[in-house]
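FORM 12-B: Structure-to-Sequence Request
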C-alpha cells in the first residue's frame, strides 16, 4: 500500500500517484467480484437482508446510486461470463473490462474481448465511443453522419425517431434522471415503454391471466426464422416468447402455460420479478427454469416470474452446459 509523504520530487510523486491509482483499480475490481458473488448466491439473505440493495446500503454504507452502480456491474459480469473469467484470471485489466461491459452483449462478447486483447486502452476506448456514437446516431436517424468502423456487430435493433422541442427534450432527460435517482433500472427504451404502459393500461385490469399486450410473432415451421411486424426477431426474444405465449394452430388458440397455473406462479412470487435485486412489477412473464426444449414441464417448481428484461437476459446467458440460476434455484437441463 502506497503511503502519502509530502515534499517528494515531481518524478517520485508521479510514480506514487500511478501506483495508488493501480491499487485503487485493483481494489474496485475485487470489491465488484465479491459483490457479484454475494448477489449470485443470494448471501445477503444469510446476512439478514431481503434484497441486495438493502444489504449494500445498510451493511456496506453505499449510497443508493453507488449501490445500483455496483449492482449494474455485477449483472454485466454475470451476463458476460467470458469477460468475468478474463477479469478473474488477470487476462483482462479492470479498466478494459469496464469499457467492454459498457457495449458488449452475449452475442458480441467474444469479438469485443478480441478487440480488448489486441488494442491499447486508448484504442479500445475509442472503439467503444465510436460504437456508442453509431448507436445514438442510428436512434435519431443520422447514422450516415458517423464513419463506419470495423467493430463487433450490434444486436438487431429497430430505430425510431422522436422530433422533440428543446423543452420537451429537457423534460424527457429530467424525467429519466428522476427515475434513475428513484432506483428504476433498465434502458431508456424500457423506461419509456413502462411509462406508456401505465398511461395506456387499465389499472383495474388483472394481469395474472395473461400478458397486458398482444404481440404477434410469426415463425417459419421449416427454417425456424421468426419475425414480428415484418422485422426479424432476436433469438433470445423468441425463446422467451416460447416460455409464456399463446399458440395459434389450425385456427385455435392455446396458451403455453394454462391461465390457472400462471395465476398460481404470479401469486407465489408476489407479482414481482424473482431475479435477485430486481423485484420489478411491470412487464411480468413466466419463465421455465428447465427449458421446454430440454423437457421442462409446466409444473410450479419449474416456473418462475421474470420481468421482460430479465427474461430476455436469462435466455441470452443460457448455455446447454451451464445451469440456470434464478430465484435461488439451480437446475441443469436433464
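FORM 12-B RESPONSE
SEQUENCE OUT:
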Amino acid at each position: 500500500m502506497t503511503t502519502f509523504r509530502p515534499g517528494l520530487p515531481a518524478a517520485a510523486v508521479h510514480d506514487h500517484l500511478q501506483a495508488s491509482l493501480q491499487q485503487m483499480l485493483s481494489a474496485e475490481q475485487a470489491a465488484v467480484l465479491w459483490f457479484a458473488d454475494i448477489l449470485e448466491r443470494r448471501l445477503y439473505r444469510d446476512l439478514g437482508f431481503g434484497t441486495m440493495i438493502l444489504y449494500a446500503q445498510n451493511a456496506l454504507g453505499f449510497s443508493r446510486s453507488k449501490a445500483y452502480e455496483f449492482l449494474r456491474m455485477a449483472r454485466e459480469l454475470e451476463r458476460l461470463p467470458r469477460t468475468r473469467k478474463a477479469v478473474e484470471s488477470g487476462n483482462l485489466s479492470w479498466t478494459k473490462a469496464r469499457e467492454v461491459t459498457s457495449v458488449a452483449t452475449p452475442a458480441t462478447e467474444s469479438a469485443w474481448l478480441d478487440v480488448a486483447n489486441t488494442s491499447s486502452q486508448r484504442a479500445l476506448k475509442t472503439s467503444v465511443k465510436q460504437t456508442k456514437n453509431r448507436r445514438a446516431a442510428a436512434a435519431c436517424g443520422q447514422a450516415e453522419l458517423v464513419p463506419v468502423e470495423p467493430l463487433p456487430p450490434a444486436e438487431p435493433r429497430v430505430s425510431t425517431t422522436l422530433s422533440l422541442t428543446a423543452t420537451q427534450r429537457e423534460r424527457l432527460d429530467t424525467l429519466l434522471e428522476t427515475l434513475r435517482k428513484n432506483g428504476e433500472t433498465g434502458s431508456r427504451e424500457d423506461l419509456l415503454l413502462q411509462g406508456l404502459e401505465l398511461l395506456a393500461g387499465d389499472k383495474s385490469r388483472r394481469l395474472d391471466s395473461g400478458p397486458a399486450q398482444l404481440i404477434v410473432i410469426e415463425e417459419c415451421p421449416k427454417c425456424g426464422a421468426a419475425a414480428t411486424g415484418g422485422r426479424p426477431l432476436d433469438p433470445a426474444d423468441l425463446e422467451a416468447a416460447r416460455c409464456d405465449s399463446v399458440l395459434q394452430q389450425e385456427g385455435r388458440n392455446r396458451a403455453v402455460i394454462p391461465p390457472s397455473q400462471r395465476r398460481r406462479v404470479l401469486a407465489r412470487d408476489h407479482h414481482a420479478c424473482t431475479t435477485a435485486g430486481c423485484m420489478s412489477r411491470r412487464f411480468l412473464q413466466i419463465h421455465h427454469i428447465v427449458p421446454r426444449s430440454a423437457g421442462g414441464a409446466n409444473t410450479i417448481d419449474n416456473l418462475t416470474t421474470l420481468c421482460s428484461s430479465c427474461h430476455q437476459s436469462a435466455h441470452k446467458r443460457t448455455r446447454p452446459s451451464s445451469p440456470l440460476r434464478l430465484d435461488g434455484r439451480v437446475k441443469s437441463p436433464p
